[in-house]
Write a structure and sequence with these properties.
About 40% of the residues lie in helices and about 15% in strands. By secondary structure, the chain is α/β, with parallel strands linked by helices. The chain has a domain of about 230 residues: 3-Layer(aba) Sandwich (Rossmann fold). The longest helix is centred in the first third of the chain and has 21 residues. Bound molecules: uridine-diphosphate-N-acetylglucosamine. Uridine-diphosphate-N-acetylglucosamine (UD1) binds next to helix 7 and strand 8.
Length: about 350
């Protein structure tokens, strides 16, 4: 079986969960990561969970000679799952050049190496951010891509286009996976999201407030045109998301793709408001959250949730875990971090 898969960003949040699912499915993931937003400890924790130590090398995708060396030393790569990118939306607005350089040069170098070393298959980590505020909900993959709200979002759009155009004119085959809102942590409680500094995203902010690291959660806006006035998102468990990557890369390796570049939404198909997310956290964990409303956060879309029919039918994949499991696992992870799991 052609089973070696390079996972760029494999020590990151979604990457690490995907490495575990790849190992469980008989693939041999090889991690490359520049560790700019993750810890090498994750490799040991993955090993503790699966009993198999994955290959890991610290590689910056923007360093072409270093990347070429990695491809040269590891023969017979069946595919690449590409997560490595900067992802802080707000930071991308203040540091656009850094974001365009890192996210786009990294992808270009990867595609150059894949072409040189006969690796045809790439699964790309995209985002529902490409839809902006969709005209129709739930949003399907046929919905138009809207003007990006941030350089981060733009790098996702441009990356999809780079893969699309390259796949039309070469042996490259790509699948772009548009994630909705990934949350939660591995059932072992050993790996999860590791926000550095103050988190931007809702669920890490909730768990950090609950554990006492933050005083208060701010709910951005209560005057949206939604049933309770707060924004609606399609939250998806990171392990469900990880499984979709395994299915996607297998589809490419087995030559089952129907087009050179395919796009799939990955969500649950159900939207929850911020207040529903807070209530579910409180109910599931028994912990009361200190929160208050403030003004809307600039750039937030009002509501978005996925039509997942295409992924259900073509990939044979469906998200299985509900919001309660997502919140419970995120909370276990937060408590384990507070107990020093990353120091031990
Ligand atoms: C953001 C990005 C998206 C990225 C995703 C995952 C934007 C426009 N989109 O999604 O591209 O893929 O993160 O990294 O930034 N909220 C609060 N209080 C908080 C934090 C969030 O009320 O402290 C609310 C937000 O207003 C939003 C919801 O919670 O309604 C979810 O926010 P967040 O977790 O940051 O994700 P998105 O903004 O949906």
């Amino acid at each position: 079986m052609a089973n070696k898969i390079i996972v760029t960003g494999g020590t990151g949040y979604i990457g690490s969960h995907t490495v575990i699912e790849l190992q469980k499915s008989g693939f041999e993931p090889l991690i490359i990561d520049d560790l700019s937003n993750s810890s090498p400890k994750i490799v040991d924790l993955i090993t503790r969970i699966t009993g198999v130590k994955p290959v890991f090398e610290k590689v910056d995708l923007c360093d072409l000679p270093m990347l070429q060396k990695f491809f040269k030393e590891h023969h017979g790569i069946a595919g690449v799952i590409h997560f490595a990118a900067f992802k802080a939306v707000g930071e991308s607005v203040t540091q656009p050049l850094q974001y365009y350089h890192n996210n786009l040069v990294g992808l270009l170098n990867l595609l150059v190496c894949m072409a040189s070393y006969d690796t045809a298959n790439i699964v790309f980590s995209s985002s529902c951010t490409v839809y902006g505020q969709p005209d129709q909900l739930p949003v399907t993959e046929r919905a138009p891509v809207k003007q990006a709200m941030s350089p981060y979002g733009n790098t996702k759009q441009i990356s999809e286009e780079i893969i699309h155009d390259t796949a039309q004119k070469s042996s490259l085959k790509g699948i772009s996976l548009r994630y909705f809102n990934p949350i939660g942590a591995h059932e072992s409680g050993l790996i999860g999201e590791l926000p550095i500094g103050v988190p931007d995203n809702l669920v890490p902010y909730i768990t950090q407030t609950a554990i006492g690291k933050r005083d208060k959660l701010t709910v951005f806006g209560n005057d949206y045109n939604t049933p309770d006035g707060t924004c609606i998102r399609d939250y998806i468990h990171v392990c469900d998301l990880a499984k979709a990557h395994v299915v996607a890369v297998k589809r490419l390796v087995d030559g089952e793709n129907e087009k050179p570049h395919e796009i799939f939404n990955l969500g649950t198909g159900t939207g929850y408001s911020v207040l529903e997310a807070i209530r579910t956290f409180e109910k599931t964990t028994g912990v009361k959250l200190n929160w208050a409303f403030s003004d809307r956060r600039p750039g937030d879309v009002e509501q978005v949730w996925a039509d997942t029919t295409l992924a259900n039918i073509k990939l044979g994949w469906k998200a299985e875990k509900g919001l309660k499991e997502m919140m419970a696992s995120a909370w276990e992870w937060e408590k384990n971090m507070a107990a020093g799991i990353l120091q031990s």
